[in-house]
Amino acid sequence: MSFPIRDEGPIEHSADLPQAVDLVVIGGGVIGISTALFAARQGLSVIVLEKGRVAAEQSSRNWGWIRVQGRDLAEIPIALEAQRLWQELDTTCEGRLGVRQTGVTYLARTAGEMAAFEAWLQEAEALGVSSKLLTEKETSALLGEPKAPWIGALHTPTDMKGEPWVAVPELARLAVTEGAVIRERCAARGLLRSSGKITGVVTEAGAIRTERVVLAGGAWSSLFLRRHGIDIPQLSVRSTVLATQPLPQVVSAAAVDDRIAFRPRADGGYTLAPAAFAELFVGPDAVRHLRRYLPLALSGEFDVKLCGPAPADYPDALRTARKWSDGEETPFERMRVLDPSPNAKKTKALKEGFEAIYPAVETVNSRAEWGGMIDVLPDVVPIVDNEPTLPGLTVVTGMCGHGFGIGPAFGRIAVALAMGQDPGHDLSRFRITRFRDGSKLVPGPNL
User: Fold this and answer.
1) How far is the C-alpha of 234 from the C-alpha of 62, rounded, in Å?
2) CA-CA distance, 201 to 326, in Å (whole number)?
3) How far apart are CA 241 and CA 25, in angstroms?
4) Distances in whole angstroms, Cα of residue 18 to Cα of each of 179, 207, 330
5) Residues near 59 by Cβ (< 8 Å), separated by ≥ 6?
């Protein structure tokens, strides 16, 4: 399988549409697939509608980290659950998910960065994290004596990695064996409603009766919601990633400083990415939500470059339709897979940077380079909530680049929310109404 996944080759999941189900899941990424898996395990009839291919967008384009370290405090208990679920699922799939406990290390060049790590750790320790601060000598020993001016680190030895372009398709196959239905290249066009409640979903291939829908559409979620009068300030930013050819195994941990992130892969290469760098293609929604994002932009904590207009058919492109009828072709059908090109200057700098840190690798060559569109929200934490104005709709979106690692747990939680069950965690931090009830937004940690 190539990585990232693209809309190529024969369709794997082409099940017939059922007339009616207990639950419809919109979006075949890690969260949508996990939702279907846990719904099937409850004995529910469930179908996943994926406009393109399973995991073809951000779920196969991320770093592959399964981390607790650096997360928002409200996410930590859920991330811990996700790590347990990943291990259980990997055992069920006979190791094919590529889950390994590599540890995650955040690297500091300055005393200020170390102070930020210490502040997070002081709050997170009570939640059961295994994280600890490392000295300069300990950091160097852990990372194979790199040639870098790191003065210390925050390290979480129990953090893990998976292989995204392999793991999520494997989870989809597992979900099918346990009773879920998946349909690729079948876009959801809209929701059917009666007396203010959901009664079904219209797809390009016909309608399905249901009273419950989980929307896990990633970068496309806000566009789908807006058609139904629900406005969330979600935008999408481009991230760049590359996979190297097999290299000498100079470091076995996942790590990131203020410039470069790296982690070992199962094929003997490394995944490299620029740390905290993203590109925002300007479109109507970016302008409309500008005031929401100004505090984050002015904080200087995120390296976001403004690019000029969003390319044709992107979710926030100027000519992308915001309204359509159930019988019309939708933006989701016009762009089956959102497949942005990588930033070539960044990929070159990444290879040179890794060579400088680890001279023993000599020359770093790319096996693959790609871009991905990350769905973000102004406070850098997701929405995981039932939409109060439309009973039957559960929204799980805006993962801000953190979705892969926490995906299985949020999938389980999505089923609980949709079915009116106790989710097992305090989800008040992730409520959808925080963007319209006058609440002060508190950004999550930039770690």
Assistant:
1) 19
2) 10
3) 28
4) 13, 9, 22
5) 29, 30, 164, 168, 218, 403, 404, 407
pLDDT score for 446:
73
Q: Report if residue 5 sits inside a domain.
A: no
What does the alpha-carbon distance between residue 279 and residue 156 come to, in Å, rounded to a whole number? Answer: 29
pTM beyond cutoff 0.85: yes
Residues 6+ away with beta carbon under 8 Å from 439: 433
| Angle, CA of 429, 427 and 213, to the nearest 5° | 115
- Distance (Å, rounded) from C-alpha 253 to C-alpha 243? 16
* Residue located via tokens 């009766």: 209
Instruction: Flag whether 443 is in a domain.
Output: no
> CA-CA distance, 98 to 411, in Å (whole number)?
19
CATH number at residue 408: 3.50.50.60
For 49, the token pair is 């509608």
Contact 230, 387 (CB under 8 A): yes
Domain count, the chain: 1
Give the Cα separation of 126 and 187 in Å (integer). Answer: 44
**Mean pLDDT taken over the chain:** 96
Q: How far apart are CA 429 and CA 105, in angstroms?
A: 26
Domain that holds residue 230: 23-435
Q: What is the pLDDT of residues 65-96, one digit of tens each?
A: 999 999 999 999 999 999 999 999 999 999 99
Q: Are 4 and 60 in contact (CB under 8 A)?
A: yes
Q: Stretch 408-434: mean pLDDT, rounded?
A: 98
Go through 4-20 and write b for each residue having 16 or more CB atoms within 10 A of its CB, e for each that does not: bbeeeeeeebeeebeee
Who's near 337: CB < 8 A, 6+ residues apart?
6, 7, 52, 53, 56, 57
Q: Is 248 left (phi over 0), alpha (psi -120 to 50) or beta?
A: beta
> E strand or H helix at 367, and its extent?
strand 366-376
